[in-house]
Amino acid sequence: MQHRIVVLGAGYTGATAAGRLAKRLHREDVAITLVNAEPDFVERVRMHQFAVGQDLAPRPFGEMFEGTGVALKQGKVTAVDVDRKTVTVAAPGGAGVGEDEVLAYDTLVYALGSGWNDQGVPGTAEHAHEIAGRPGALRLRERLAGLAAGESVVVVGGGLTGLEAVTEIAETRPDLDVALAARGGLGDWLSAKGARHLRKVVDRLGITVHEHTAVTAVEADHVTTADGASIPAAVTVWTTGFAVHPIARATTLEVTGTGQIVVDRTMRSLSHPDVYAVGDAALAMGPGDKPLRMSCASGVFTAWQAVDAIAARLTGGKVPNVPVRYYNQCISLGRKDGLIQFVTADDRAVRSALTGRLAAFYKEIICKGAAWSVAHPMVMAVRRRRVVPEAVVAEASPVRTAA
Length: 403
Ligand SMILES: Cc1cc2nc3c(=O)[nH]c(=O)nc-3n(C[C@H](O)[C@H](O)[C@H](O)COP(=O)(O)OP(=O)(O)OC[C@H]3O[C@@H](n4cnc5c(N)ncnc54)[C@H](O)[C@@H]3O)c2cc1C
Description:
This protein is α/β, with parallel strands linked by helices. The chain folds into 3 domains: 3-115 and 242-325 and 373-402, FAD/NAD(P)-binding domain (3-Layer(bba) Sandwich), CATH 3.50.50; 119-238, FAD/NAD(P)-binding domain; 328-361, no CATH class. Helices cover 28% and strands 24% of the residues. The chain contains 10 helices and 23 strands. The chain has helices at 12-24, 47-51, 61-64, 124-127, 134-145, 160-172, 192-204, 296-315, 356-375, 389-395, and strands at 3-8, 30-36, 71-74, 77-81, 86-89, 101-104, 107-110, 114-116, 128-129, 152-156, 177-181, 208-210, 215-218, 222-225, 230-232, 235-238, 242-244, 261-262, 275-277, 282-283, 328-332, 338-343, 349-355. Strand 10 (152-156), helix 6 (160-172) and strand 11 form a beta-alpha-beta unit. It binds flavin-adenine dinucleotide (FAD). Flavin-adenine dinucleotide is lined by residues 9-14, 35-38, 42, 44-45, 47-48, 76-77, 111-114, 131-132, 161, 164, 245, 279-281, 294-297, 299, 330. It comes from Streptomyces paradoxus. InterPro entries: FAD/NAD-bd_sf, FAD/NAD-binding_dom, NADH-Q_oxidoreductase. Belongs to the NADH dehydrogenase family.
């Protein structure tokens, strides 16, 4: 009998995991199903580019996974029952139109990623735009296209996504009045060189920066700050971090207060040994026992780690330790400029940074490389290993403690 592996979510980490599983395990032994809401791969790291009107290359999963043996299922996951080991996928036409489908699994890889986080600030849900996924970015794209010269845009959030969004908007639409509201200082975690360059670019693009400014409410035409000031905003773009989808929290899985699945160093759920969580959906510890930040930069390593652990456990091999660490923070500052901030293994800025056109080129290569490796899962094929029946039995055994 085949061992059924269901992978939920085909973003950077889920798609990587499905492809790597297909490479690692023998086709006759496992049935791998990849479930995703959309029919093609979304380059989430380019949503700020999409929002300003750039077109992204279509990447249909059907082509990406052709010949891999991975079965694709398009649909929205609405529930996971980790005690019965089933996943519910909504009927394609929506409730009442068809039957929901229930998929049974032996091993689950949970990679549903995250969406935007409105932090509960009043007015965000009604008035703010977001770029955490394609639907939100498309809505912003249409809104920005409809703005007349001189109208105001405020990007709230001075982190990586906010910086990429505000510079992309200002570069594409120099006719707009573009501002950034950041709770801290502009790029205050960067090296001196990185922070200096960022300030130079922001000045060149004519972006007004409101530093040490917390936005406490969003209205249709302005935002209000903690000190009671008002900043005009025909469009508010909200980029204050990501929040995971509520599905895991509705299960008996052990999750954090924010709904991330708690895993050991092999990305295996601490409460349910047949569930692995990767990417934004997991709370995994990185170097220095610090939680990994939600990013592709670390997420792809977590997918590799989970797959290598699953493959080892099913084939009776030794579970490898995939190093999960950071190397750099790659920030696009429009299409012609960028900043590559080199960091320690645990993500703290070191002195060296690349800036300017070279950094923009570097960032582009990173984005292209990430999408390429997802789209070519079978390149660099490794020897497929046979599943060992005794190992499958052991896999189903009670929870193992975190290594
Ligand atoms: C504008 C922007 C720029 C970014 N830039 C960078 C960067 O430069 N570097 C970096 O490291 N990180 C960056 N990030 C963060 C990075 O995109 C995420 O951390 C990464 O995508 C997480 O990967 P994931 O596979 O966990 O989740 P995702 O990529 O979000 O994938 C989740 C998948 O699950 C699917 N899904 C979700 N819910 C359901 C459901 N209920 N049913 C079925 N399918 C579902 C989604 O459609 C999606 O395909 C950026 C993010 C944004 C928004």
